[in-house]
Design a protein that fits this description.
The chain is mainly beta and 208 residues long. The protein has three helices and 13 strands; from the N terminus they run ββββββαααβββββββ.
C-alpha cells in the first residue's frame, strides 16, 4: 500500500484480540513452531483489534487509542490479497487518526511491513472509517465492538494447546488460542459466525 513520507519515528504497544471463520486452532498460525498453511475453508473472514496502551508518533500521543480491522481474502486468488476496512477510534483527533491510519495500513513502514499481510503484499483497501470503538481484552473473556458494524466476543478456550503464535502480533511471542463469536455488517465484508477460532496476545510495533 506504500509508505507515507514524513511520518516521524513511532512506537506502539498494547493488547491484541482477533477472530476469524477458521476452526480452532487456526491453521494459519504456527503451532509448536511449525509453519501455518491454508485457512480452514479457503476463504478467510476476520475481525482484528488493537488496544494501544502506550504509543507515540513523533510528538503525537497515541496512548489509549483503539483500532479495529475487518478482512477477507481467498487462498486461491493469485497472491491472496486482503480486502480490508480499517476502523479508527473516533475519539482520536485528526493528527492521531492520520498517524494510526498510516501505521495500521503499513504506509509508515517499520514492523507492519514484516507482520501485517495486508501491508507486506498487494491488498485492497475498501475504506477507513471513524467509529466508537469499545475494547475489553481481559484474557479468555475479551470482547470488542466497532460502532454497530463489528463485534467479537470470546466464548471459550482451547484446551491443551501447543505454543501458538500469529504473525500479526508477532511470532517472537506466544499468545493463546480461544473460541469466539464474530459479526460484521460492514459491507461488503459481512459475516455472522459462532464458535470459531480467535487469538489473544500482546503487541509491540515500531518504525525501527
Amino acid at each position: 500500500m506504500g509508505e507515507v513520507t514524513g511520518l516521524e519515528s513511532w512506537a506502539l504497544s498494547g493488547t491484541y484480540l482477533e477472530a476469524c471463520n477458521c476452526e480452532a486452532i487456526c491453521p494459519c498460525r504456527r503451532i509448536g513452531g511449525r509453519p501455518g498453511g491454508r485457512s480452514t475453508y479457503g476463504i478467510c473472514l476476520g475481525a482484528l483489534s488493537w488496544a494501544v496502551e502506550r504509543g507515540r508518533a513523533g510528538d503525537v500521543d497515541l496512548s489509549d487509542r483503539r483500532v479495529v480491522l475487518v478482512d477477507r481474502y481467498d487462498d486461491d486468488e493469485p497472491g491472496s490479497p486482503w480486502d480490508v476496512i480499517l476502523f479508527v477510534d473516533e475519539t482520536a483527533d485528526e493528527r492521531q487518526r492520520q498517524a494510526l491510519e498510516a501505521i495500521f495500513l503499513g504506509r509508515a513502514g517499520g514492523t507492519p511491513l514484516r507482520q501485517f499481510p495486508w501491508a507486506f503484499k498487494p491488498s485492497r483497501l475498501v475504506d477507513v472509517r471513524a467509529a466508537a470503538i469499545e475494547i475489553d481484552h481481559t484474557p479468555r473473556r475479551g470482547w470488542f465492538r466497532a460502532g454497530h458494524d463489528v463485534e467479537v466476543r470470546v466464548t471459550g478456550t482451547v484446551a491443551d494447546q501447543e505454543p501458538v503464535t500469529c504473525v500479526i502480533p508477532g511470532h517472537h511471542q506466544r499468545g493463546e488460542e480461544i473460541i469466539a463469536d464474530l459479526t460484521s455488517t460492514a459491507a461488503p465484508i459481512d459475516f455472522r459466525l459462532q464458535g470459531r477460532c480467535g487469538y489473544e496476545a500482546t503487541f509491540a510495533y515500531s518504525s525501527d
